[in-house]
Amino acid sequence: MKTIKMQGGIGNQLFCLAFAHSVTRLSREPVAVDLASFSSDRYGHDFALEDLALGLGGVRFVRRPLLAARVTTAVMRKARIPGYVSEGAPPADRIALAALVAEGRYFNGYWQHEAYIDDPEGFIVQAREAVFRRAGPSPQRDVVIHYRTYKEEIRPHAQGAPGDDYVRAALARIAVMLGAAAKVCLVSDDPALALERLGDVGCDLTVAKGTDPWSDLALLLNARALVLTNSSFSWWGGFCGAAEVVFYPRRQGYFHYPIPAARFVCI
């Protein structure tokens, strides 16, 4: 049975689970999802997608501490052990994705590219259902900004995020395309810090009063227009959402940077 290492926060877990779903579809066999890394997660993350994983079908949960350990990861990536696959260049098409799946037994990576998702439409439907099941009814907003502060990031070089100039440019483009929004909703892991960093963006910002990440993600999924930051949580809000337009920052040296989806507009 092929195994995918599960790791990270909700956004990263969605990438890993979407890839696991691709593996089971293309290999036509169940896939094991290794949860061992959460026992030593540096940020205290827990696996949050059990209901979605079971709903997708073909998933088994395992714990393989030796394979999930950081030391093993470093050694195996350098040694190029047959069957041990870590992230590289994303596959160019479904045939290349199937070939990648066929060559591996243990997959260790975040798989942050839509090219790793074999059934995007089906996965999006089930992911949305899982989010709204947890969040409950969510109001629709014209414009939602998601700003990830990375305040908890312990590595200084990995703390970068877009500034107010990016947000102002995105809001100006939205006004031209969809009309000016009277109010813009801000979703953030730390709204006060986000407001301090963004300053005056030319409109009123209403802070979302979500009580958990599921209600925050539901707001992104229901928005008419989105302004995202360099975050996997942001990425999934745009990828699974119903927004007419999704703005996403150019890389510009950001450490945390999922590759933009085809439907995103980079500025």
Brief overview:
This protein has 267 residues and is of the alpha/beta class. 40% of the residues lie in helices and 16% in strands.
Q: Fill in the CATH topology of the largest domain.
A: Rossmann fold
- Rounded to the nearest angstrom, the radius of gyration is 19 Å
Going by CATH, the architecture of the largest domain would be: 3-Layer(aba) Sandwich
Query: Biggest sheet, strands in spatial order?
Result: 8-7-6-9-10-11
The portion of residues assigned to helices is: 40-55%
Pairing-aware structural class of the strands and helices? alpha/beta
Arithmetic mean of pLDDT? 94
Q: Characterize the largest beta sheet: strand count, sense, and whether it forms a barrel.
A: 6 strands, parallel
Beta-strand residue fraction: 15-25%
Order of helices and strands: EHEHEHHEHEHEHEHEHEHEE
CATH level-four homologous superfamily name of the largest domain: Glycogen Phosphorylase B
Spatial gap, N to C terminus: 42 Å
Q: What's the CATH class of the largest domain, please?
A: Alpha Beta
